[in-house]
Write a structure and sequence with these properties.
With about 140 residues, the chain is α/β, with parallel strands linked by helices. The protein has a single domain (about 10-65, about 95-140), classed as Ribosomal Protein L13p, Chain: A (Alpha-Beta Complex), CATH 3.90.1180. The protein has helices at about 25-35, 70, 90-95, 95-105, 115-120; strands at about 15-20, 55, 75, 85-90, 120-125, 140. α1 (about 25-35) links the parallel β1 and β2 (about 55).
Amino acid sequence: MKTYAVKASEIERGWWVVDASDQTLGRLATRIATLLEGKHKPMYSPHIDTGDHVVVINAAKVRVTGDKLVQKRYYRHSNYPGGLKEESLERLMARKPELVIERAVKGMLPQNRLGRAMFKKLKVYGGGDHPHAAQQPATVEL
């Protein structure tokens, strides 16, 4: 028996549309990460990017459970002394809701150049419209 190894020329990338309305943030992010990595395909290989493109719409309507809206914090640093910035989930959702889903998915992908390549195939939009209709994406039911 020979082990099958997928070649880069054999990979066919599909397009998926995910509606984030009334979806829990973590469960939505894991499903998106699975599609981006290609783990839903029989030809999945951990060292090759076999994933599909994912378009997320209605990112502003995603929900979280418990008191995460007030208690969850996002941090960033300017690399200057005293440059630590802190923002709650509630303020980030009001300011830029796309960033919440992007950060959740990015943390679930591999932390290397392969993960960065997978992350580039994610497109997140706060509203219900997206400019990727020409790709004829399939809809994911979660």
